[in-house]
Amino acid sequence: MLGVILEIFIYILSAVAAALLIIGLIEPHMLVVERIKWQSGNTNNSSVFSKADNICFGQNSKNIRLVFLSDLHTEFNFLSPEQVCGQIISANPDAVVFAGDWTGKENTSQMEKAEIWRALLVETADKLQIPVVAVPGNHDREKTRKWLSDSSSGIKFLVNDTYAITAADGSIWHIHGLDDLKHGKPLVSASTIVDPEQTIAVAHNPDTLLQLNSQQSRFFLSGHFHGGQIWTPGHLEFRFLRREKIAAMGFRRGSFRYNGMNCYISRGLGCVVMPIRLFSKPELTILEISNHEV
Fold first, then answer.
1. pLDDT, tens digit, for every residue of 36-83?
2. Which of 9, 20, 47, 285 is the 20 to 30 Å CA partner of 153?
3. SS3 content of the chain, % helix, strand, coil (to 5)
4. Under DSSP, is residue 135 helix (H, G, I), strand (E, B) or coil?
5. Residue 54: what are its φ and ψ, rounded to 5°?
6. In this structure, what are the phi and psi dihedrals at residue 101, rounded to the nearest 5 degrees?
């Protein structure tokens, strides 16, 4: 009897493992469009933040819409650039923001794939008359940095620098791109911060958030975690495979608030180490921010 129960248990366990493997192999092909709306407001030099699905952008608001991408990882990326760019066109944003990691390895094959993505992203942005802004990731080493920094790339590559964006309503917003925490030195210069209410800090590693405060920026965007990529009970993938402090604090993906800032961690587009995602589908994020002056 015990042998029969054990045999049934093994069959069930094998079936569950096979089902999870199939899901894990399918998910990297399934792009999800996430929609986030944030609101801030100047009231006696303080800020009020909310995340909602029904924010109405009024006449007294200054508004910006961004498409936010991260972690392309061409070596294990199963999305088509045409699919992603089609979503960008549908979103009609004021800018495309990319939070680093174009490839895992800077060999010829992967750089060629990354170039296909770069070219189509820039071509799409040119059609919409908007910029593509990017920051370096931990996999973006010397070759990638040089490639993106070239004036012919069409990318506004920010390493501890700020780029001004004019939104569709004429308001001016600033993207402050920070260097990678592992292979660089992220810095925020007070002279580059014009208005924290309309400054969006972008960095690859979410732990960069620990070096910022709401007097520098009210908003923070990052990637790097892949949403866990392979989900396990109790977030074991973070406990054993990652040492980032933000993850240990429970901020692993999606929208959250920290230190007076609205923050977002993207699940990214590609996979790292292995071509599998489990309950962490690749994402393109449409982010709308409204600064309502009272």
1. 999 876 533 334 334 444 444 455 789 999 999 999 999 999 999 999
2. 285
3. 35, 25, 40
4. coil
5. -130, 35
6. 70, 80
